[in-house]
Design a protein that fits this description.
Four copies of one chain form a homotetramer.
Chain A lengths: L9 H11 L6 E5 L5 H6 L5 E6 L2 H13 L5 E5 L2 H4 L8 E4 L5 H11 L3 E6 L2 H13 L3 E15 L2 E6 L3 E7 L3
Parallel strand pairs in A: 1-2, 1-4, 2-3, 4-5
Antiparallel strand pairs in A: 5-8, 6-7, 6-8
């Protein structure tokens, strides 16, 4: 969910990237890239990452993060994913961390991606619509509900405090 | 965990009281009564509730809450549960929401309770020690891990935000 | 979800009944009553419970359970909730554990209930539709996601095994 | 927990490997390697993985899995981790999926690892002892509780079914 909800939490990112099944040299799109965290991590294995966000402040933020991380294989694009994707011919995988119109984005991704599409969502209706659209497109694989709690020190012992649960919805376009 | 951690959350209270299997007219102890929330709820069915806390500020807080709720069958006691329990002959059930020395409290409760003992804990080592002590006393029934998330409105949709997970450890002294 | 999914788990029932805010003497409907477990538990406080299920095998099962529990204040009705509710003038609360058409049922309940309506759901789309319908009817209070794990003995220690997570959606019709 | 509990679930593996912070070329130990799943995955980045298990049937199973995966940089060792580790001079990281004596293993790992140590545990007392031992050794970083539910198709909709929650305990020996 980008800047608004802060960067994707490490554990959710780890599971999301695992489900993306990125191969060495893959070309990926990161839609609603927010802080750029996912793009930067994915760029370790990808040959090219298109980091897309329609919010100027996200692009500004991601720009600095990408520079700091010294990543040269991330193309940062300011714009609506629906429009930006028209200019991309082919992708090996795509991560959607935030999007204005999930249906439109998924339809376009289904055309140009040959591989996995992973959506992170926290809004109930978005989860429901993502699953429905993926099913209609014939690309639905599975949905996950991830609940992580982290230890915090308290009086010499530890207790667990939860981070927000996230739904990870996985699709796949067969090659 | 009393005042420090705030009152027991509704959902955790509902499960804890269900597991206590309170019968109409039962006599119960609420150890580490904190705000008095559990005592007040339990007093609907119990004939008498002993609400015990060693912290003066908890007793002060619970006193007002009990008065506001107009409950006459709650005996509020300021003191260490280990000592206070020496003066109680018999209980039908006991809830432990917080305690300095869980082993001592459980040993005393095992002697005077004839029925269920339910402990709420969030500290890992306390959970482990509670289970171990209940097993040594031959009263362990089960432990539960409860994770509740509640809806919050966001951009016309809802998302779920978690409350702290709680361990509910259940013991039973056979009659 | 009735017989198909087995009876409502104790912890989910405890939270659901707590959220129903049943007062002594209330009249309640239990829609998709399945095994009758919720009806039997609620009948302790209610003056009358209408237990409704469209499945003959559920009604048969619930009939025996109600007889065994010796409850005289449960009216068991075999039929579609949408139709059955037409014959009921007023309810203080309603629990929906399963339903063919959640929108129709909620619309009818919104007319005759003066108090809480609690829906248990496990299907994603049903959750989404329940929240949306309650919002349209102006009766939505909150949705909960409940994840309970129970201890199991293993090599002298305990581990936790989860039961299926359940969404509890709460509505309220103001008096 | 090796063969007994089946292979580590994908999502738990993804988080565990992320927390290990494996760098290209690292040397790692996989203690209680079970089916070899973690070793095979980690061998993608590591220069060498020592896969250790004291159970003959685990070693047999892992042997075949490693051969099928055509991994040449995994050294499979049948023996008690406590003894086997005596023969290893230095490790960049270690994963413990199962172990007879977690205290002994952690003490030895604290000596030879320069980097992350990640333990997966499901037994309550093992979690508690792992945290305590890591704290005593001054290497405790954090503990996580991971609860994953996966979608299953039901009557044209999806519901979520949980896999067993796992504790991931993370330690780090500073270089």
């Amino acid at each position: 969910m980008g800047l608004k909800g802060g960067p994707t939490q490490d554990e959710v990112m780890a599971v999301s990237l695992f489900k993306l099944r990125i191969n060495e040299g893959d070309v990926m799109a990161d839609i609603g890239c927010g802080t750029g965290k996912i793009s930067i991590q994915a760029s370790e294995r990808c040959s090219r990452v298109y980091a897309i966000d329609r919010r100027a402040e996200a692009v500004e933020y991601a720009k600095k993060a990408i520079e700091t991380a010294e990543k040269n294989n991330i193309t940062l694009i300011h714009g609506e994913a629906g429009n930006v994707l028209d200019d991309i011919d082919e992708l090996n995988c795509a991560f959607v961390g935030g999007s204005g119109n999930i249906e439109t984005v998924l339809e376009k991704l289904a055309e140009i991606v040959r591989g996995r599409i992973v959506v992170n969502a926290v809004l109930l209706d978005t989860v429901s619509r993502t699953v429905r659209t993926m099913k209609e497109l014939g690309i639905f694989v599975e949905a996950l509900h991830i609940q992580v709690s982290r230890s915090h020190e308290l009086v010499g012992d530890i207790m667990f405090q939860p981070i927000n649960p996230v739904y990870i919805i996985v699709g796949e376009v067969k090659q």
